[in-house]
Amino acid sequence: MAQFEWWNDERLLEGVHDRFIQEGFGRRSFLKYVAGFGGAAAASVAALKFDLNDALAALQESSPAAEEGVTNSPAGELVVAQGADAETLDPARTTTRSTWNIFCSFYETLVKVTFTDEGVAEFSPGLATSWQINEGSETVWTVTLREGVSFHNGEVFNAEAAKFTIERMLLGGDEFITRTYVRYIESVEIVDDYTLSVTTIQPYPLLPLDMTGVFIVAPEYTAATDPETFATSPVGTGAFKFVEWVRDDHLTVEANLDYWGGPPKLQTIRFLPIPEGSTRAAGLATGDIDVSTVVSIPDVATLSDTPGVVVENGPSQRTVFMQLSNLDPEHPLANQSVRQALNYAVNTEAIIESVMQGYATILQGQSITPQYFGFNPDLAPYPYDPDQARALLAEAGYADGFDLTLYTPRGRYVFDYETSQAVGGLLSEVGVNVTVEPLEWAVFIERLANNDLAPMAYFGWSTYNDGARMMEVFSCGALYSLVCLEEFDEVYLPSRATLDIAERERLIHATTQVQHDQAMAIFLYQLNNIYSFNERVTGFRLLPNESFFLEGVSVAD
Amino acid sequence: LVRFLLRRALQSIFVLIGVSVLVFVLMRLTGDPTFLLLPPDASREQVDDLRAHLGLDEPIPIQYLHYLKNVLRGDFGDSFRTGQPAMQLVLDRVPATLALAGVALLITLVISFPIGIASARYRNTWIDDIGRVISLIGQAVPSFWLGIMLILLFAVRLQWLPPFGAGSPKHLILPGITLGAYSAAILSRLLRSSLLEVLGSDYIRTARAKGIDERSVLFRHALRNASLPVVTMIGLQIGVLFGGSVITEYVFAYPGMGRLVLQAIGNRDFAVVQAFVILVTMMILAVNILVDLLYVLLDPRVEIH
Q1: Distance between alpha carbon B143 and the CA centroid of its chain, in Å?
Q2: CB contacts < 8 A (A, B)
Q3: What is the pLDDT of residues A442-480, one digit of tens each?
Q4: pTM of the full predicted structure?
């Protein structure tokens, strides 16, 4: 690890990786997919999509053993090391990825985010099998639920359970921080045992996205259990059942033989929280752990040389850019040419090569990547052209340059401070004297929320796989935004309130265009996720949003 | 003696209040946990709601009075992150950290006494040189690095010991060495210089003149008198061991309270940090009182007023 800010457990979830994502394939399949939600194309959504887990399940079903009637019973133990432990097992009270990854073994969401082999996001049925906006309505959705599902304690999953879960998040109290994901829901009505009618407060195309954050809890159990017990002994519908949890030591789950998708392949999984990267690497080498979900760049070489250990990397949907604040009209950065000049002055390819050691992919002149709905394939990165930068600065009246402070977290994301220093160095070559000021994460995020990090700040941003969500941080008055352009909001705001898919894509393209032309940020790179596992593990994949599913994973003896 | 204890107890209460105010205010001045708790797409309104829910919207002095009132009733507040009572979270980890600190102390003593005594006995010989080099290394090496090196050697290469975790005595050895190394180095140097001072004194010369053999001069006469500063230092090192456990527990993924508080500081989980600081302060105050009492046993000249 380059830094000693080891308390930032989440940094350990920030990813790093490879460049095959560049090609931007498969965006179309995501589109088709999203089209399903709009209800415009009521064609079978399920038929259009490819779900890794379904495919694996299908494979399993059609395997000779299954045909011969031999049950493929779960076997073996998988040990998964993450950087941090679960914070609580109450799914309404946390949104950290490492905790959600554990949740995915015993809880299930209404909608699942899965990814194609090319790393393109898709929605797959979870406990909901379909979700469509009602004909002629802009705000009322019909959600059909999966039948024949029961909770680990025997309760039956039905519309009542889904409604209970959503209302608990929505009305339960301010400590239920996942309210963020249901805040556009006005009401939930039960139509029949397996059908819900969901009304949103405004036309809201992102409802399916939000439903990927709704982990369904068992209503009777939840109501009858005190919050403290509930937060340590979860009852869900997932492929694994909770066994025990010793905080910061281990959390164990075992196969749920009655799982609606058929029993999983593993008998038990142990999740270990191991904060230090070198220790996780040592655990892989000794065989004490099977999977490490985060590998730091300095450990890659060692692990690659370790026999029996596989190191892989893939695109992360987290993107890194330096937002350029225009909030102060007197400041040089309020001038569009100056902001463009700063983009011309930064040699991003060189930063990726030297600072990130190749484990990053250059952004295409916008803050979103091909993983996101709305990625604009017509944009390209600003070329590295210091002469052009100097010319633009001179034109704007800053031929002698000016002073600038760049605020950056340190140790929160992979090589964040180092990247900021490199950017500062490159800018000083065109006469802009940059002071790089590192801040501890808690301080950084608080000052960011108070608009106190202007004129320039490092962003390592990631959210749901939709441009309309990811662009929020560039809109006027958003919690973490340092910029405000009317021109941007004119296309951004409709992009999250339009149900028509094609129109919505056009709007997000327009936001990326404004973002690019106005140079609202210095666009740098997209991180890679690097992860590692023992070669006895089959089927493990860390997805671009740093999540993983374990139903289809197996281990050899 | 009773009066002494009473007075020390009273002093301790003031120390506790002072420490709690300091931690309370410092934590609140350096970061707001609401932004760390909520997802990046939360609304400003939700931030305000949550802050009010956590009681962070009031002025700090008012917050402290609320806190003090609750503490007097035995309620140290709930963790923002886990929703569980903060003191309970910390107390759950005490046995693990005590076990680790105990092993580290044992290792400290086992290493430092032989080295310190041998260095003093054979001063300015090669034995002394080796002893001094070992203590210098022990003091200079960061425990972070030492821990990782020990894992690589004993867990990865030799496969004698587990690389991380807890649950068996074997799990305590590597973190124990990592944690104890610094204290052992300090103690052996202190013991050496303290012994040398005593060995040069008149009564030792007298003892030797009487023909008492060197062994019992060293162990019965010199060591007992030389151990006074050492006992003080051991008392101080217990505090160091608690502090050092933070890094050691992190490296070895050991579920102790150091690691808990490290996460709590990063998350600005105020109640947990406060409960930890108060608990550790109480422990250290207790150890100090104990050390003072030990003086009386070791040195008849010391009296308690």
Answers
A1: 14
A2: 148
A3: 999 999 998 899 899 999 998 888 899 999 999 998 999
A4: 0.86
